[in-house]
Amino acid sequence: MFANYLIGLREGLEASLVVCILVAYLVKTDRRDALRPVWIGIGVAVALSLGFGCALEFGSQELTFEAQEALGGSLSLIAVGLVTWMVFWMRRTARHLKAELHGKLDAALQIGTAALVATAFLAVGREGLETALFVWTSVRAAGEGSSDPVTGAALGLATAVLMGWLFYRGALRINLAKFFTWTGGMLVVVAAGVLAYGFHDLQEADWLPGLTNKAFDITGTIPPDSWYGTLLKGVFNFQPDPTVLQVTVWLLYLIPTLALFLAPVGFASGKGKVTEPDEHGSRPSKAPQA
């Protein structure tokens, strides 16, 4: 549940910040007449994300076992790629997010209502589709009949909406740069587990060899049905009897990706101090004068 709470919180907070920036800019520039198309775009993005999740869940039930495993494994790889891109993108561009959205909104205001709807839809829709895909892969990894991933994601999204509202009201101030760095690092660990499980799905679909070639088997020490086995599986997608291929791709992804993500780059440049997102709770640092 925690892993899905984290993805719901992270993606939901990004979307909430985008909404806060868009709405606050329109209010401050006395363009309240443009709020309705913005909310329409946001509503369409949310509906599309929910529809995408439902299509994945119910559409896959009509497939054979091998086809389900192939689909699940392939989408797991795509989900890991999207989440990895997302955490690096947010770490690199968060300080420019407000200015970028303001520029897009100014251009949309000049074009008309349809452009406003499209701007809001694209800004929020990407987060929603990523969340739906990643949560669906986590539901598959958790096993049939488990509602914990969906519950965790829903709680994360609810927390993000509350935080977004508090940001907008000016009642909450946190260091967004550190928040996205820490949650991004944890998501990389979660994504490594999803990637390994995705490769296991592809092995079960007979797309990849080595299904019976186990790296180790500690099911006697960590039973999958124990509370701690369930906890490890829910948080890290841990499997007590992984294949050699699973362990290999887990290590090849996690070590370099986490090292690159935690490297001190992205928010600092030259002699200037670290620059952080400046929307509702983070104050940009000024570079020293020459």
Précis, in short:
The protein has helices at 2-28, 35-60, 65-93, 97-111, 113-142, 148-169, 176-204, 227-236, 244-262.
Topology record:
Elements: H1 2-28, H2 35-60, H3 65-93, H4 97-111, H5 113-142, H6 148-169, H7 176-204, H8 227-236, H9 244-262
What assembly state would you assign to the polypeptide chains in this entry? Answer: single chain
Structural class: mainly alpha
Number of strands: 0
Low-confidence stretches: 266-290
Structure write-up:
The chain is mainly alpha-helical and 290 residues long. The chain is 71% helix and 0% strand. The protein is elongated, with a radius of gyration of 21 Å.
Descriptive key words:
290 residues, mainly alpha, 71% helix, elongated
